Amino acid sequence: MYRPLMLMFGLMLGGEAWGAAAANEPILPVQPAKITDAAKVELGKQLFFDPRLSKSGFISCNSCHNLSMGGSDNLPTSIGHNWHQGPINSPTVLNSSMSVAQFWDGRAATLQEQAGGPISNPGEMGFTHDLAVDVLRSIPQYQASFKKVYGDDGIKFDDVTNAIAAFEETLVTPNAPFDRWLLGDKKAISATAAQGYQLFKSIGCVACHNGEAVGGSTFQKMGMVEPYATKNPAQGVAGLTGKDQDRMMFKVPTLRNVALTYPYFHDGAYWNLSEAVDVMARLQLGRKLSTDEVSQIVAFLDTLTGDQPDFKLPILPPSSAKTPRPAPFN
Amino acid sequence: MYRPLMLMFGLMLGGEAWGAAAANEPILPVQPAKITDAAKVELGKQLFFDPRLSKSGFISCNSCHNLSMGGSDNLPTSIGHNWHQGPINSPTVLNSSMSVAQFWDGRAATLQEQAGGPISNPGEMGFTHDLAVDVLRSIPQYQASFKKVYGDDGIKFDDVTNAIAAFEETLVTPNAPFDRWLLGDKKAISATAAQGYQLFKSIGCVACHNGEAVGGSTFQKMGMVEPYATKNPAQGVAGLTGKDQDRMMFKVPTLRNVALTYPYFHDGAYWNLSEAVDVMARLQLGRKLSTDEVSQIVAFLDTLTGDQPDFKLPILPPSSAKTPRPAPFN
């Protein structure tokens, strides 16, 4: 899948340095976000941080996709409404626009579709789409923002998720050391990291972890060579299709910012990147790596941390006397 | 208490306009924060947003003193560890440096002392001071930041709360319309708001709500003329002293940004400012205000919303392999 993408980006960028450095590599540099509708992105940012989209008034998108923490919550599985223990590790929202689909099982085709899921999930934000819209409609500043961006008077739930998705599309992390290396700065990564990258390619990690997101473009079986031992009951795509061949098929996670998005795998069972690399090599590639090899690959993975979100803390518009009250304890 | 303060600020500022406009008023304009140790403030900001100071790894200072929402959580009482229902309304952290003491009952003398409370409260962040320090010591970037700011190698809990307090001291909200009016811009507030301010003074609200914070400088009995009806068992200062005369004695809350810090009172029982004004006038002053009078005072209170926090979302340093893991579910 990455070759057409590479060609496309090669044509779009057209830079000699870029062509020379990156065109032969299966990983592509992250492109900075191009913001075409700043008002929509600002609205989406407010909504992303607004806990009033939850029943409790306490949980926002940012609670589990914390932009101060690599776009994740750094927990094995998330905490939801009424301290519900979530079933699966919260994937980073950073660079999620590059994924072929959303959620570990890909059940949402788009970021917009994804954004509606947690709001109405009883174990996450515990609300309903209608009630979330009722809250937003009661807030004059939101009314004005939606009218400005979407042109009509009512606030529609599709516009809510559209704005959140537009904000999320800006959450890309360019300028990682590895990307600078791809673009020709050979001093941007250490010799150990460069060795790690060669190993990452030669042993086959790159077969799934490639492209701009270094993953996110395919579904693969967790435990291809050797079964993955876990107490987590998630079955991946089979949970949607019921088909045996889809058991343990999960979306390949992005490795962008992987040093920030611990703990790892869909069950969040591994906290250290070195352990995660060892497990992946054994279970997916049938290969036992030496300690040195693991260290080299970890050094490479550490170079995938890009520029983190860089914006002002959003200030949320206040509720009005008409705003339905949050209900955290009933 | 406010007259010496006024004199002090008058001497410090020395501006003719300020002196002429504000010296005769019992409310003082909020002074912008003067940041003398930027590194300490930045460190404190990270700590304020860092959920790793809680047992769950999910709750930070900002969870209940949300700087996107007037420095409060806009809930009657807060949600704590394991979805514990808190006993009292979370006061705004904005302008809290101006308070004579911290918490509704004033049990912490300083912001620094206050900052330690929620971290080790089983129903709030559910951690211990020692465990919080263990987490911070395991994070190389925090080690470096503490060494830079405090000069020694170990991280001490007193330094943690000192840095958080230093950040909180910057959370002042100057430039409210009412402050611009105080400073001579007579068009900064509406005629209705100006009438409301005159009423606020003439009926006696200003006896307790005065000074720079428009409150925060004294303790008063909730229900001075008529008892306050509430299901909340909090007894205010009497909870500390056991003395009958301290029953229902609470710190007078600041009215700065009061339009953002609903719901109101220590039990968070009133969501609308107009209701809160009506209750206060009846219970504290023995006065039943007309609808117009309430509207005027609310219009005045709305002019107390100042500049909200204006900084970049902090990016937190990642944990290391040595970092103790959060324990949200045990």
Question: Could you provide a short overview of the structure?
Answer:
Chain A is about 40% helix and about 5% strand. Chain A is mainly alpha-helical. In chain A, the strands form 2 sheets. A two-stranded antiparallel sheet of chain A has the order 1-2.
What report would you give on this structure?
2 copies of one chain form a homodimer. The first copy, chain A, has helices spanning 2-13, 16-22, 38-49, 61-64, 111-120, 129-137, 140-150, 157-169, 177-182, 191-202, 238-241, 273-285, 291-302; strands at 79-80, 84-85, 219-221, 249-251. Chain A has 2 domains: 2-30 and 175-302, Orthogonal Bundle (Cytochrome Bc1 Complex, Chain D, domain 2), CATH 1.10.760.10; 38-169, Cytochrome c-like domain (Cytochrome Bc1 Complex, Chain D, domain 2), CATH 1.10.760. The N and C termini of chain A lie far apart (48 Å). The longest helix of chain A is centred in the middle third of the chain and has 13 residues, at 157-169. In chain A, the strands form 2 sheets. In chain A, strands 1-2 form a two-stranded antiparallel sheet. Chain A has a two-stranded antiparallel ribbon with strand order 3-4. Chain A is globular and about 65 Å long. In chain A, helix 3 (38-49) crosses helix 8 (157-169), helix 10 crosses helix 13 and helix 12 packs across helix 13. Chain A is mainly alpha-helical and 330 residues long.
